[in-house]
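A.,

Following up on our hallway conversation. C-alpha cells first:
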C-alpha cells in the first residue's frame, strides 16, 4: 500500500516550506485540500518573494503538490473513495483561522469544529496511520487561569483536547507539534512575525503621536510595560520545520504525543524593546514594571499591544522549548540584532514613501434632479458599496479600497449636497438630506445593474445606508457600519460628541446672524478640528484625540473651505440629526458588523454599542487606541475585521440579546 501525505490546507509560507522540506526528504507524494481562492492567494505570496532561488523552489513545490480543490470544512469524505481507498495516509493539519481578533468567535469555533469532525471522518473511512497537528506553545489561558482573549489559543486548546479524546483508543498515532507560531507568515522573512508586528505597531504609533504632538518624543520617552518573565521565541522558520520533520520521522512512543518544536533560548521582551530603541534616533523607549507609571500616551500604546499582540508578552513554558547549545544561542542573538536593525531601516524607508494612488474608474450619470453625479469603481467580483461621510473625499478610502478591490467590486463617491451645483436649479435654500442620499444610492445601483451587494458606511453615511435597506431589503447581503452617528435615540445625549454639540450651536448662531459665519469658520478650523499641539500637557490628555493631523485635512475638511460649503454642510448635519432610526435598527435581519473606535471624539463608541444592542443579527468590535479616522490611520485593522466579516457573515447565528 502506497503511503501519501495529505494536508487539510495550506494558508501561508510556513505551510508551503514545511511541504517543501517533506518533499526534499522524499517522505512521500503530497496531496493538499484547498479552496481555489486560497491557492491563488498563496501563489501571489510566493510570486512576491524577492529571492529568486526560494521563489522558484516554492513554485516547483506548488506544481508538485496534487491539489484537491475542495475546502476541508465542506469536504464530502465519501467522494474520495477511489483516490484514497488503496493508500496509507499521513494526515497533516494547520489551523485554517489564526486571527486573534474575536469578532466572529462563535462562528469560527463552529467552523473549526466542522473541520475537526471531517478529520475524524477521514480517519474512519480510510487508512490514516497518523495525524500531525501544528499547534502553538501558547494556550487560551495564562497561569492564573485568566482568559487571554486570543481566539487562536481557544481553537488550538479545543483541537488538542479533541484529538486526545477521539484517538486515545485507536491505532491512529497523533503528534501535536507545539511551536512558537501565532501568526500567518505572509512574506519571505525567516522569523516569526511577532517582532515584525511589534515594529510595525511601534512605528505606526510614533507617526500617530507625531501628527498630533510633533515635539512629544523630543521631550518624552515612550514607556512600555513589561514583566520579568516576558519572553519571545526567536526560532527561525526553517529551524522549526526541521525540528518538526525530525520528530515526525521518529518512532512514536505513545499513541498521542505533545512535542516541543521550538529550538531556541528565551529572548527577553525587555531586550527586544531596548534593541529597537538603540536603533531609533528619534524616539526613546523606557521599560516599566508597573502600569501605574504610564501616562495617557503610553496607555494608548499599551491598549494596542495588549489587544493585537498578546503573544508578545507571555511567559513561555520551558518544557515546550528544546534547549540549544550556548554557541547557537549566541548566533541567534547576533542574527536577531541584525534582523531588527534591517527591519527598522526598511520600515522607516517605507514610511517615507507617499501612499500609492488607487486606480479608480470615474463614472458620471445625470441624476433625477438633472445634475451631474460622479462616482468611482475599482476591482471586480462581489459588489461592495461604500456610503461615505458627509463632505469627505473618496480618496480617504484609498488604502481600504486598494485591498478590497483585489477580491471585490467596490463603489464609492463623495456624498452630494455641500455644493449648490448638486441641488435642483442650484437653489441655495435646498437642503440635500438623508432621503436624497438614499436616492443617490438607488441611482448608482440602477446604473450599475446590481442585483445584490454588501454596504459599508461611515459616520454620517450610516443613516442613508440603513434607510436604503428599509426600502430595498432584498438588495442587501450585509452591513458594515464604521464609527456611526446614530443619535437621536433614548438616552443619546450622554453619548453626544463635542463635534455634534458645536455643530448644532454654530448652525443656530449662523442662522440668526450670517455675518458671524467667518468667525465660526475659524472656530471650526482651529477648535473642533484642533491643529497639532506644540507642547504636551498631562492636564488635558484627551485633547490629542480631537487633533486633525495636517496630512488628512485636505481630504476631510473640504466642507469648511468656503461659506457656500460650510452653510450647506451645517444644514445637512442639522437635517441628519432629525432622523431617529431606533425602530429601523430593530427591523434589520441581515448580518451586521459594527466597528467603533475607543478614542472617537466625533461619533463616540458608546453610540455603536447602543446600536449593536438593537440589531439581533449583529457583531461588534471596538479598535483600541483608534480615533474616528480609523480608515486613514488604522486601515489594516479595519480590513482585518471586514475580511473576517466577509468570511463568516453568512454563518452569523447570534440571537437577539
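Then the amino acids I'd put at each of the 657 positions:
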Amino acid at each position: 500500500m502506497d503511503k501519501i501525505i495529505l494536508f487539510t490546507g495550506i494558508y501561508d509560507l510556513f505551510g508551503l516550506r514545511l511541504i517543501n522540506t517533506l518533499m526534499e526528504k522524499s517522505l512521500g507524494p503530497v496531496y493538499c485540500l484547498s479552496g481555489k481562492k486560497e491557492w491563488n492567494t498563496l501563489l501571489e505570496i510566493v510570486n512576491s518573494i524577492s529571492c529568486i532561488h526560494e521563489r522558484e523552489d516554492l513554485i516547483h513545490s506548488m506544481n508538485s503538490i496534487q491539489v484537491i480543490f475542495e475546502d476541508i470544512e465542506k469536504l464530502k469524505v465519501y467522494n474520495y473513495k477511489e483516490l484514497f481507498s488503496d493508500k496509507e495516509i499521513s494526515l497533516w493539519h494547520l489551523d485554517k483561522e489564526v486571527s486573534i481578533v474575536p469578532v466572529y468567535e462563535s462562528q469560527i469555533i463552529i467552523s473549526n469544529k466542522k473541520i475537526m469532525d471531517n478529520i475524524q471522518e477521514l480517519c474512519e473511512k480510510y487508512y490514516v496511520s497518523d495525524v500531525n497537528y501544528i499547534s502553538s506553545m501558547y494556550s487560551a489561558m495564562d497561569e492564573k487561569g485568566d482568559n487571554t482573549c486570543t481566539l487562536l489559543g481557544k481553537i488550538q486548546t479545543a483541537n488538542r483536547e479533541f484529538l486526545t479524546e477521539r484517538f486515545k483508543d485507536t491505532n491512529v498515532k497523533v503528534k501535536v507539534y507545539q511551536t512558537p507560531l501565532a501568526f500567518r507568515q505572509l512574506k519571505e522573512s525567516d522569523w516569526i512575525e511577532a517582532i515584525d508586528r511589534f515594529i510595525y505597531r511601534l512605528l505606526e504609533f510614533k507617526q500617530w503621536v507625531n501628527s498630533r504632538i510633533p515635539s512629544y518624543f523630543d521631550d518624552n520617552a515612550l514607556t512600555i510595560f513589561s514583566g520579568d518573565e516576558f519572553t519571545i521565541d526567536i526560532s527561525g522558520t526553517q529551524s522549526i520545520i526541521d525540528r518538526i520533520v525530525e520528530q515526525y520521522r521518529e518512532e512514536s512512543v505513545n499513541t498521542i504525543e505533545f512535542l516541543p518544536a521550538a529550538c531556541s533560548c528565551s529572548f527577553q521582551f525587555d531586550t527586544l524593546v531596548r534593541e529597537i530603541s538603540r536603533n531609533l534616533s528619534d524616539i526613546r523607549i523606557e521599560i516599566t514594571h508597573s502600569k501605574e507609571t504610564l501616562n495617557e500616551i503610553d496607555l494608548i500604546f499599551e491598549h494596542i499591544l495588549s489587544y493585537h499582540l498578546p503573544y508578545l508578552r507571555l511567559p513561555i513554558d520551558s518544557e515546550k522549548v528544546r534547549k540549544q547549545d550556548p554557541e547557537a544561542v549566541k548566533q541567534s542573538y547576533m542574527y536577531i540584532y541584525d534582523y531588527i536593525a534591517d527591519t527598522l531601516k526598511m520600515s522607516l524607508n517605507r514610511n517615507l514613501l507617499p501612499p500609492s494612488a488607487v486606480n479608480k474608474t470615474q463614472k458620471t450619470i445625470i441624476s433625477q434632479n438633472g445634475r451631474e453625479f460622479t462616482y468611482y469603481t475599482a476591482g471586480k467580483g462581489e459588489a461592495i458599496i461604500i456610503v461615505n461621510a458627509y463632505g469627505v473625499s473618496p480618496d480617504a478610502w484609498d488604502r481600504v479600497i486598494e485591498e478590497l478591490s483585489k477580491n471585490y467590486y467596490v463603489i464609492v463617491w463623495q456624498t452630494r449636497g455641500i455644493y449648490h451645483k448638486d441641488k435642483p436649479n442650484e437653489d441655495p435654500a435646498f437642503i440635500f438630506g438623508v432621503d436624497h442620499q438614499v436616492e443617490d444610492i438607488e441611482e448608482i445601483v440602477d446604473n450599475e445593474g446590481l442585483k445584490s451587494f454588501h454596504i459599508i458606511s461611515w459616520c454620517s453615511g450610516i443613516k442613508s445606508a440603513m434607510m436604503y435597506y428599509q426600502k430595498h431589503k432584498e438588495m442587501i447581503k450585509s452591513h458594515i457600519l464604521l464609527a456611526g452617528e446614530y443619535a437621536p435615540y433614548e438616552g443619546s445625549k450622554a453619548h453626544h460628541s463635542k463635534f455634534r454639540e458645536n455643530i448644532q450651536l454654530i448652525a443656530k448662531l449662523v442662522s440668526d446672524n450670517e455675518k458671524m459665519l467667518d468667525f465660526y469658520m475659524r472656530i471650526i478650523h482651529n477648535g473642533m478640528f484642533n491643529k497639532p499641539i506644540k507642547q504636551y500637557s498631562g492636564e488635558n490628555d484627551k485633547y490629542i484625540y480631537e487633533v486633525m493631523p495636517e496630512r488628512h485635512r485636505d481630504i476631510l475638511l473640504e466642507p469648511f473651505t468656503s461659506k457656500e460649503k460650510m452653510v450647506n454642510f451645517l444644514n445637512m448635519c442639522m437635517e441628519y440629526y432629525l432622523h431617529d432610526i431606533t425602530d429601523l435598527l430593530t427591523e434589520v435581519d441581515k448580518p451586521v458588523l459594527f466597528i467603533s473606535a475607543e478614542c472617537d471624539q466625533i461619533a463616540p463608541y458608546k453610540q455603536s454599542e447602543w446600536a449593536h444592542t438593537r440589531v439581533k443579527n449583529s457583531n461588534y468590535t471596538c479598535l483600541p487606541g483608534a480615533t474616528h479616522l480609523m480608515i486613514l490611520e488604522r486601515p489594516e485593522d479595519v480590513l482585518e475585521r471586514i475580511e473576517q466579516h466577509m468570511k463568516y457573515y453568512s454563518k452569523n447565528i447570534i440571537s437577539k440579546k
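The two ends are 55 Å apart (CA to CA). Curious whether your intuition agrees with the design.

B.
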